[in-house]
Design brief:
With 97 residues, this protein is an all-beta fold. It is built from no helices and 8 strands.
Amino acid sequence: MTLIPIDDNVFVTRCDAIEAEGVVHIPKQYQDRPNEGIVQAIGPNCQINPETDAPLLHVGDRIMWASHAGDTVEHNGTEYVQVEEPHILAIFGDEDE
């Protein structure tokens, strides 16, 4: 059985936050869970890019969402975060773009 989001919901799997060089290291047990992840599924009412007539989000995009947003859902042994599209703050682009 697949997990299909409805409305403007997006399902994401968490990934480690991108760390910058020269910052203070905080041990993992004291860190908050990252609010970054990889898009796994997109609901049918997510925004469309008016220039290309294609969705703004794509499966596989790395995104950042607001710290107050997101509910954890487990499906077939995988933990997902359900985030409403308005709570997505950024899509990480390729460095060569």
